[in-house]
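Sorry to interrupt, but I need a hand with the structure work. Could you write out one complete protein record for me, on any chain you like? Just paste the record in under my message, thanks.

. . .
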Amino acid sequence: MTVIRLNAALPTLLPVEALPHLGGAVYYTEELPVRLAWNMPGAQPLFGPTVEPDAAVLTTDVDHPDVAALLRGGHRLVAAPAPAGLAVLDTVALIDRLRTEGPWESRQTHASLLRFLIEETYELVDAVQRLGDAAPGSAAAAAAQDGLRSELGDLLLQVVFQTRIAQDEPDHPFDVDDVARTLTEKVRRRTPHLGSGATIDVATQAANWERQKAAEREHDADRGDEAPSCLDGIVVAQPALALAQKVFERLRTAGFPAELVPDDVRSLRIDPADEFAFPEVTYRTAVLRLMDRVRSAEQLMQSGVAEDWAAAWAGPGGAQAEPGTSQGGSGVDSGNAESAGDDSMSETGDPDSPDDTAAERTDGRSKKKSSKKK
C-alpha cells in the first residue's frame, strides 16, 4: 500500500513517482478538492486505516489519523515536491479576487498606488536598519526579523497589485508570470557563469553584470532616436543624493574624470535660517544639469568632434562651472557637505519640500517648470 502526499497548494497535481501505484484501488482524505474525485471515478473516501494491499491513498495531510496509522504500519510514502514560492500563488489569487470584487481595489491605477509603494519601501528600509541595530540573538533581533518579514510582504503586495492592474490594460497587458520571466531572463543574461558552471570572483561577476547592462542599454537605444548614453536607464525620480550616487557609479564605469564634476554637485551650501531654501530641489537641479552636460559631451565624442571626456567637456556648451557656484540659501556652509567625486557627500534639509521651479525628469532629459508666484 502506498500513501501519496499531494502538495496542499497544488492538490490536483500528482507526482510522477505516484503513477505506477494508481493501478489498484484509490482512496482519498476528505480535505482534497472534490474535482479530484470527479476526475477519478473509481476513487473512494478513506474511512479508517484498513485498505487493500495494492491500494493508494491520496492526501495532503500526513498527520490525518488514518494516514498516520497507515504510515506507522510501514507503508510507503511518495511525496509531491514542494518548491519554494508556492505560497505566492495564494497571494496572487487573493489580489486577483480583490481586484475583481473589491470596491476600492477595482478603482486603483498604477499611479494611484505609487504613494503606497514609496511608503512601503521606506518602511522596509527602516526594518532593515532596526535589524542591523539589534544585538544578534536578542529579543529585539527576533522582533526586528519579524518586522522585516512583514515589510517584505507589504512590498510584495505592491508588486503583485501593480502586476494585476497591468492585466487589465487594453494595450500590451502582462501578468505576474510575465514579470517573473522577464526578471529571470535578465538575471540569467547578466550571470552567464551560472549556465557555464564556471567559478569566478566578485570582480569578474561585477564586470560581467555591468557589461551586459551596457549591452542592454545600447540595444534599447538602437530602438529609439537617441544615441546611447552611460546614464540611460537611471531613475531620476529618486531622491537627489541617491540619484547622484547612481550617476557617479555610471560615470566611474564610463571612465569619466572625477575632476570634471562641477562644484555645485561636489558640495551643497545650506543656510538653516533661510525659510525659502529647498536643498533637495537645489541639489537635484544641479545633478540633472550634470546629466545633461554628460549627454552633450557623449554626443561630441560619438560624432568625432572630441576625442575624450576632457576635450568634450571643454567643447561647445561644455565650459567649466566656476568654483563656489553651489546653491541653496545665502551660502552658509552646513558643515556636512563633502566632496562628491570619489569621496562621499551628505545633504541636510527637507527632502519633501515642493518647489515650482524644480527641474523635472520624464525621459532622461531635464524639463523645467515655469516659475509661479503665489
